[in-house]
Amino acid sequence: MPAPEPTGSSPARGEEDRQHATTKVVLISVVAAIGGFLFGFDTSVINGAVDAVTDQFALSPALSGFAVSCALLGAAVGAWFAGRLADRFGRKAVMVIGGVLFAVSAVGSGFAFAVWDLILWRVVGGLGVGVASVIAPTYIAEVAPAYIRGRLGSLQQLAITVGIFAALLSDAFIANTAGGAGETTWLGWEAWRWMFVVGVIPSLVWAFLALQIPESPRYLIAKGQTHKAGEVLRSVLGNLSVEAVQRKIADIRASMRREDEPSLRDLRGPRFGLLPIVWVGILLSVFQQAVGINVIFYYSTTLWRAVGFDESQALTTSVITSVTNVVVTFIAIATVDRIGRKPLLTAGSIGMVVSLAVMAVSFSQATGSGEDISLPQPWGTIGVIAANLYVISFGATWGPVVWVLLGEMFPNKIRAAGLAVAAAAQWLANFAVSTTFPSLAGIGLQFAYGLYAVIALLSLVFVLKAVRETKGRELEEMDDDAPART
Predict the structure, then answer these.
(1) What is the CB-side half-sphere exposure of residue 324 using CA atoms within 13 A?
(2) Contact call for residues 106 and 160 (beta carbons, < 8 A)
(3) With the CA atoms of 268, 272, 276 and 278 taken in that order, what torsion angle do they form, in degrees rounded to the nearest 10?
(4) Contact status, residue 25 vs residue 236, Cβ threshold 8 Å
(5) In a 3-state reduction of DSSP, which class is residue 373?
(6) pTM for the full predicted model
(7) What are the structural domains of the chain?
(8) How far apart, in whole angstroms, are the C-alpha atoms of residue 363 and residue 383?
(9) Worst-scoring range by mean pLDDT, 104-108, 183-187, 393-397?
């Protein structure tokens, strides 16, 4: 028997309430997704500064590469502990911590006086990146209604791409204003220092806005605050009847029922020490990075200079690539709740295999070596086109969809912990790819991109064999023993 409607309700009023709730949940999801903007900004801002930093501190290639990728080690640590902190102190509190870490890193990096000092502050920023990579998708999944959860979860990746774009655009503007990233500009500072300091603004904005949004209803229920949880559920799901809210709370409580505090021990299982669903999350994260996407964003300026562009042209091309990444993310937002998660991942893997293979063939025609490498025409043009098709294939599928899945695929009682482990694995994979790329490039860019093409092919096999569809399912239905959907 359907639950009675609230007193004085009507179909028109019900639709109005649903629209109001949808607007509110979109707005609070956007606030959570600012964390994605910050970690996109923080991990890419080094792109325009790396050559100037290398020259100023006289860095070896290995140390220069570590200065770029060290933030990823901090991100792995931040992600590892973020789930535990979120379960103990709440999702909002962890967002504030993340914002503060970003702000401190931005200031410290701008004032760096030696490479070890810069690396320290980059690691601090990495801690914020790791926190944001866990808490934003967790929070969004826990407040979003099932029918739009995929679209709202995709906001995380959209925010990441906008953050990457903002960092590259800011780098290009500051470098062009100063006449180069290593030249002095405002207040007598080198331009690369300002590239870092700009990040203070969005960091503090996120920390402030995080204090204004409601706490996750699932966290509140876990802490026994069912009245507050009911208020949040009514505000984000519409003006539900008292009975409907009580049923929802009962479902959530049943899915989280336990006698002890949640911990990483909950992830233990029979297969190599972890639950199968945790392994799926880890491998999704590893494949997302192992296909080499961040090589395009961390080393794109250097890459395009190798193709024959000067510094200004290379920065501009990097900005164009980042814009492409932003635009195609809207494809995922528009389709993830219609087509589903698994079909998008499948299409993305196929697109990456083809485009990476073309890039490998293009760079097999290169002449010269090291920084003197160049691509003759038409291979230079083909390489640039293939790189952007690769970004499109990734940005419309694997970029956003993995974050959607990580936010929703785990059962309620292990969601934060499971996502923390998967995100930590993602940042370690990101670190491995970023630090090994210079060595792979030394062997030959055709070898590097050929290797990434093989990994993309393996990701296709993995999706077809191990990933199950979550479209339209409530979070309380995410049971590891449930049959797979295709």
Answers:
(1) 19
(2) no
(3) 60
(4) yes
(5) coil
(6) 0.75
(7) 18-213+258-477 (1.20.1250.20)
(8) 7
(9) 183-187
